[in-house]
Each structure stands twice: as structure tokens, then as C-alpha cells.
Amino acid sequence: MTEDKRRRYSAPVVDGIGKSASRAMLRAVGFTDEDFRKPQVGIASTWSNLTPCNMHINRLAEESAAGADEAGGKALIFNTITVSDGIANGTEGMKYSLVSREVIADSIETTAGCEGFDGLVAIGGCDKNMPGCIMGLARLNRPSVFVYGGTIMPGENHTDIISVFEAVGAHARGDLDLIEVKQIEETAIPGPGSCGGMYTANTMASAIEAMGMSLPGSSAQNAVSGSKAEDCRAAGAAVLNLLDKDIKPSDVMTREAFENAITVVIALGGSTNAVLHLLAMASTVGVELSLDDFVEIGRRVPVLADLRPSGHYMMSELVAIGGIQPLMKMLLDRGLLHGDCLTVTGRTLAENLQAVAPYPQDQNIIHAFDNPIKADSHLRILFGNLAPTGAVAKITGKEGTHFTGRARVFHSEEEAQERILDGTVVAGDVLVIRYEGPKGGPGMREMLSPTSAIMGKGLGSDVALITDGRFSGGSHGFVVGHITPEAAEGGPIALVEDGDTITIDAVSNRIELDVPDSELEQRLSAWQAPQPRFTRGVLAKYARTVSSASLGAVTDLP
User: Fold this and answer.
1) Which one of the listed residues 107, 271, 449, 472 is annotated catalytic?
2) How many of the other CB atoms lie within 10 Å of CB of 371?
3) Could you tell me the residue ranges of all domains in the chain?
4) What is the band of 477 on the pLDDT scale with cuts at 50, 70, 90?
5) C-beta separation of 309 from 475 below 8 A
6) Neighbours of 1 (CB within 10 A)
7) What CATH number belongs to 379-551?
8) Angle at 433 between CA 411 and CA 407, to 5 degrees
9) What is the pLDDT of residue 3?
10) What is the rounded distance in angstroms from the CA atom of residue 490 to the CA atom of residue 492?
11) Is 550 annotated in the active site?
């Protein structure tokens, strides 16, 4: 490839006498005459000191920039936003969480599109900034690599952020006093890195690596480690190789690559949010993907990883035995991955995995195919008269596969949380939390506080929770989210009344409201759409433009 083709976006910005003013601006930020002849690599950093997930990413961005410079490019670092689900959960602030995914994608597209970067590295370390980064890279479709910021180390006594949420419920039950809760609070988050189980951050990092948009091993490294610094430096250099070979995100993010990502997410027992984000990422890059694909792939892929929240181990412990690469090799050898998919190394997935060693024989984290945690997917896509266009559940089997109970209806997460903690919610209840969908919230909040309170109160096997909102990757129990159509659009979840019988069947994949159609029609005729809670600002814009959760809750559908 000629130098001009490597500089197809930066050359119009800096070449020629007419661009003297552009060069003058760039000289002020460190460009030399030689730099103007190099391909420009934008380093999208999600650094902030708002959250441990991202507090170290400025150093990682500098490593990526150094890697790009050493490989013959000229790197420029720019920032995009991040928010913290762990901080905002259970508050009005959580309405902005999923919205931030769109803002991040918008900001990366905006900055790179304006500045004329020839290639990009994006570094993310939290639930929404990772899919947001990928969506931004996909929109631009320029040679790009994603880097995961890495996982946190366990807290004292093998604790993590979910331990703190569940301690609140345990206190309400009387099992922990205030001093014990404070001790967990003070020690559960020991430093930088993303939440330590197979929650949404580690799930999405694994999915992105399986898709081929990260270098091998990027998803399974500790945040503060030499290997993570090396990964960042190598990513910067890899962009120059992609420029040479003209490999773009659309060449990597194919239909088969998304199937690989879904397969790895299932094998790892990953978060329900992966469904939402993979649908959104596929939509952005123009790949057809639907809820039915999760059903089809789920029939043939078992859950093999004994990882939190439903299992025992943390990501740092998986890192110690080799990360996800040996698991991917197992899946490839079993015929469950597409080995011919191109990756950001410039090689195929099968070529990347060729020399990967198996896990140590004495490890207990990743099970063999003849001894799975669950024989098929834990991600259950449910349909029925309560969810005509689909819902998403995470059922590992430990919480059972069937639940029938009486509806206890709430119009907000806060209301449900209060009734769980004060003892109003009892065994046999199906909690219905509605008007928390993408439009209705707006923002589709995670129900981590209620699910953690349920577990902490000891009701995990006795209570179900359904919602048009979503769940944290740390949520577990008999929970169903992403119910569509959502309540704000007049979906059937808006018509449920206290005491109605609801049945959830995670074998036949059904969620049914035991109310005659004639009664539901009568209720619908009396239903009135709620007035928008926000009429100006980002939440109002989001509510007006966001699609259904069954389509990924994206805001830029044509």
C-alpha cells in the first residue's frame, strides 16, 4: 500500500499550501515536518478518576500512543466520557448509563471524523464505554483496535462490588450489622480495574476479543500489570499493520464474528447486557443479528465457566490460568467457532489460536464439555403474551427453570427496592418493575440494587423479578429483563395488575400472563401513556430516538 493510501483521511487535513493553518495548529501540539508525512492514529481514551474501572487508562493510552509512534505513525490522544454504573445504581443517575454508550460512540465518531485520523485505538474499561467504543469505530470504519483496560483484583475475603450490594440486603435481613457492612465497603474495591466477576465489563471484553477486534489476550489481563501495558503498546503498532493491509472493522466484524462472540459469552456464563450490546454493535456495522440467533446458538453451546455472579471464581483467577484463549481453542476444536474469521492481528482466529496451550489439569474454573455447568445457554430469550417481541433472562439452572407466582407491580426501581427491604415482598412474588425501558425510564436502568437486595434477604430462590429495564452483569436469581414492547409503548407489561399469575418457563422459553386476551384488551383500552418525564436535554433526545431493546436500543437506525 502506498503512503497516500495509509493517509487517506489525514492528507486532506495537512497536505499542501492551503492547509498551512492546519499545520500551524498541529505544530503547537508537537508535530514536526516529518510527522505530517505519517499516518495519524487517534487514541480514544476513556480515562477519568470517576471510577476504578477507568482511573488508570491515561497511562494505557500513553502506551498505545508510544506503540503507534514506534511503528511509524503519529499518535494523538483524545478523551471521551465514562460514567460509573456501580456508583449510580439505584438512583436517577443510572438513567444516563445506557445513554452514555451512544454519547461515547457519537464522540469518537465526531472527533475522528473531524480531525482526519487514519486509524484508531480505543481503550475502554467499563460496561458501556466498551460497546460505545466499538460502535464508534464501526461507524468510522477505519483500521482500528480495541483495548480492554483490564480487570480489578479481588478485595479482602474474596469480595467485589457485588459483595457490597448484597451486604445491604443481608443487613436488612439482620445477618450483618453496620460495622460488618462498612468493613466490606472499605475493602471490596482494592484499586484500578473493572468489576471482578463475569459481569458486563469482562463479558464485553471477552466478546470483543472473540470477535477479533482486540489482540489475543486483551480481555483477560489484570488492569495493573506488565502484560496490560504490553497489550496497549502492541495495539498501537497493530493499527499501522492494519493500515498497510487496509483491514477495517467491517472486515473483522462479520456475521460469523458475531456468532463467535455469542458463543464465547455463553461458554463464560456472561451478562445479559451482552445481548443488548451485541445487537447494537451488529446494527452499527450493518450485520443482521436478532434475538433468534441467541436462541439458535444457545442450543449447541454449553456454559463451561464457574465464574461470578452465579459461580465461584473471579476474572483475575481466570487470568492466572491463561484467560479465555484456551477456552476459545476448546470451542474451536469442538467446531463451535468460525476459525476463518479475520482479526486485528491480520491473521485468522484459527491462526491466532494455533499455538495456545491448554489450561492446567488441576484448574476448576473452566469445565470440560462432558461436565458443563449447564448443557445449553444460560441466556434465555423468552417470548409469550407478556413479551411478544422478546425478553432476556439469565438462568443458570441453580435458581430453577420454572417459576409461577403472583404479580407485585411497581412503577420504579426505587419503589421496588423499598418494598424488598421493608419485608413487603415475600416468597411467591413476581416483582414487576415497569416504565424503566429505553423510552420509559428513559435509559433502561439496571436493577442491580433490587436483585442484590433479594439475594441478601435470602429470597433468591423464592422470588422472581421481571422488568422492561435491564440487569447488571452482577445480578443473579430468577430475573427477566428487556421485556418488549416496553410499558411506555403500551406493551403487555403495562397491563399487569397486582395478584395476576405470571409463569416463567426457561425450558420452553415462555413468559406468560394468566389473563384472558379479552381482559387484556379491556385494560389496554383504559391505559394511558405516561407523560415524558424529560422534555429537554440528553434524556429527552434519547427517549425520542431510541429503538426497542430487542433491536439493541440504538439511536441511529435509518
Assistant:
1) 472
2) 8
3) 38-153+191-353, 154-190, 379-551
4) confident
5) yes
6) 9
7) 3.50.30.80
8) 105
9) 52
10) 6
11) no
